[in-house]
Structures are given as C-alpha cells and as structure tokens.
Amino acid sequence: MKKSSNNFNKFQSQSLSGLAIKERPVLKIQFLRMVLSFALMLNISAVFSSCNTTDKAVMEAYELRIDGKADLAKEALLNILEADSTNAEAHFELARTLNYMNIMGSEESAKALKLALKYDSDNVVFAFYNAKNSFLKAYIAMQQGGNDVKNLVNETCNEFVKVIEMKPDYAEAFMYLVEIYGMLPEDMGGDKTKAEEFTQELEKLDNFYGAKARLVLMPQGTDMVEYWKNYIVENGEDCKVLKELGVACIFSADITTAKESFEKAIKLDESQNIRLLDLARFHMMKVMQNRDAAEEELPKSKVFIEQYLASTPEPIPPLKAYALGMMVKTEMFNGNKEAGEKLMAEAKAIDPYFSRAFGIPWLTLFDPPDKMDHHFMSFFSPY
Hints:
Distance between the termini: 109 Å
Low-confidence stretches: 1-53
Largest sheet: none
Mean pLDDT: 88
Number of strands: 0
Number of helices: 16
Order of helices and strands: HHHHHHHHHHHHHHHH
C-alpha cells in the first residue's frame, strides 16, 4: 500500500512536472502576444496622438492667418509638411493661405490643393473648394478674354458633379451648376437643358435654393423683389431669403428696403453684419457709374463701413482690414490723400494681405479647414 502510494505520488509529481514543461511554451507564446498587443496599442496611441497634434498645428496655422499673420501661417504649414508630407489637411490649409495671399492663384497653391486631394480624395470639403477654385480660374479667363474658357468651364462643372456624387444633398454645389449652365452662353459652356435638369433636382432637395435656381431660368425683367416677397409669404423669413430680398432691392435702387431686409437678417444672425458692406458698396458703385455723385454717395458709403467696423461680432482682422481698405478708396477719391494713406497704413498693420478687390472676399476662406462650406457666392452678381 505504501509502495502504491509512493508510486502514485511519483506519478503525480511527474505528471505535474510534464504538464508544466508542456505549458511553458504556451505561456511564453501568450506572454509574447500580450507584449506585442501592448506595444501595438502604444503605437496606435502614438499615431492618434501624432494626428491630433498635427490637426491642432494646422488649426493653429489657420488661426494665425485669421489673425492677420498669413506669413507666419504659411511658415507653420510648411514646417508641418516638412515633418509629414502626406498631411492632407495641412496641404489644404496651405492652398487656402496661398490663395488668400494671392487671389489670382499661383502654381504653389494649385500644387498644394492637388496634394490635399491626392492624400484625402474622399474629402468633400476639399472637393467643393477645388470646384469653386476651378470656376474662379474660368472666371478670370473670361475677364481676360482667354481662348480656353469653355474647356475650363467644362472642367469646373465636372468638379461640381464629383462633389454631388460625394454628397448628393449638397445644395450649393447644385446651385453653382445651375448658374454656370443657365447664365453662360453656349460658346462658353452654357447649357439651358442641363440648367433645367439641375434646377428640378434642386427644387426637390431644398426650397430656398430651388427657388433661387428657378429665378435664374426665369425671363429677363422678372420682378425679383416681388418674387422673393412671395417666397417669404409661402415659406417665412430666414437669413438667406432676407439677403436675396435685400439684394433684389439694391438692384431696384430701393436702398431703404434693402437696409431693412439686411437689418432683419442681422437680427436673426449677427454674422450677417457683412451685409452692411454690401450697402456701402452700393453707394460706391453709384460713384463708379457717375463720378459727379461722389459728394452725395461716398459719405453714405462711409457710414455703412463704420457701422460694420463697430458691429458685433467684431470683424476678424482680414475683414476689418478690407473694410478699412474700402474707406481708403473713398478718401482717395475725394482727394484726401493724407487721410487715405493713414488708413492704408492702419489696414496693412492689421493684415498686410487684405483683399484690395472691390468684391467682399470669399467668406469660405475664413471658416475652419474642416468645416463644411455652405457659403454661396455668385460669380455673376456683385452681391
């Protein structure tokens, strides 16, 4: 019995020892797996941390530009891209920064935008900006009497179609197609049939843009003021339609009603204070059409510019400098050279690259780089 017990103990000891020997490779493999998993988690964490840091860096560069420091923004973005040449968001913000610094565009900005699209081809924000930028090039070619206008317009339309394929409910993309096809002559790429097709799609998609698109195709001489008033009766007031009504009133030279409409829009959304600059530009345009009207119209323009500069929210530096640039024009036109030069120095100190163009700068340039663009700016209207 004792022998039997000893044998059992020996067997048990050998069995446990054997089991331990068999388990050691398994435990070793499990341990290695655990170490590898932990290392992988650290790697993934580092990657996400790097991405977040890069995204933060791109936003910081954007904020520099919005603060009137475009040169520093460009330098920061180039540093980001030196560390990671595949950073699509940095390429995109660099393209916007370069376009802001030179509204006519450049090979450098075109290259940056192309790389942004290469490294993030499914990004609808990038795609929409690219389509708008394409039409800007076509528009500049139109103004310069270029021979390749039709090809540029066709390329632009193809880009907007790509945007719609990515985001089928993108009303603003549809609207650009309606205006391009509906307003341009055929020899420049216009196509009334396509304009009607896109209008019908837009009417199903969005009441406001459907109405705006339908107005494009209505006969010349249509009473736009009455058109938008009727729309408001049926659909109510919002910022977009109040802006359209105000613009229609400007075209009818009814500045009082235009002002009332814009003021309503501003009450609904303070960011609509930009409309005050439309009123200022209206009075400046009257002087451009009749220089003898300067004494009466330029002081009115100045009042609206001052109202904008004192409005809430406070204009960001690029727009503040642009508004001061508008005042420079009024002072110079009136022969007040010293006052004009003083204002110009003030504007340049705020933002050396502020837009000298007559039209209000693209508001999309001042949105964060990851924000969906819902600004529609007609290339066929000064407002």
